[in-house]
Every structure is written in C-alpha cells, then in structure tokens.
Amino acid sequence: MSIRLVGEITEQTHLSRPAVSHHLKVLRDAGVILMRKEGTKNFYYINVSSELGLLKELVLDIDKFMQNFY
C-alpha cells in the first residue's frame, strides 16, 4: 500500500497544493481513497475495499499470472 502526503503528491503531479487537496477530497468523498491523521499531517492511501482497490488487485493478479505464464 502506498501512503502519501499532499506535499509528495504535489511534487509528483506538478499540480498546485489547492488542486491536489480538491482532487483528494473528491476521491475521499467517492470512497476511493482513505486518510489517516497523525498530528498535523494527513496521509492518503487507496481504499482497497473500493472498486478501484479491487481493480488494482485484479490487474496485479493478471500481471503475476502473465509473468508465470512466460
């Protein structure tokens, strides 16, 4: 599971901090990502029980299968 701070996401996407925060709120409201607070820091990660999490697991399983197949 990959856990990220807003600052890390901002650096990787080259989006503004407000834009990243807005997108994270939309994804949280949709149940795609979850947030964990530690003091003043908010850590974001994919909700593996959401459809997106299930899709991620499926893709990883297919990848493993294909690696074993060849």
UniProtKB/TrEMBL annotation:
GO molecular function: DNA binding; DNA-binding transcription factor activity
Sequence ranges assigned to domain HTH arsR-type in this UniProt record: 1-66
Pfam families linked to this entry: HTH_5
CDD domains: HTH_ARSR
Transmembrane segments annotated in the record for this chain: none
InterPro entries xref list: ArsR-like_HTH, HTH_ArsR_DNA-bd_dom, HTH_MetalResp_TranReg, WH-like_DNA-bd_sf, WH_DNA-bd_sf
Record PROSITE patterns: HTH_ARSR_2
Keywords tagged on the record: DNA-binding, Transcription, Transcription regulation
Family annotation (SUPFAM superfamilies): Winged helix' DNA-binding domain (SSF46785)
Protein name: HTH arsR-type domain-containing protein
Organism in which the protein naturally occurs: Ornithinibacillus bavariensis
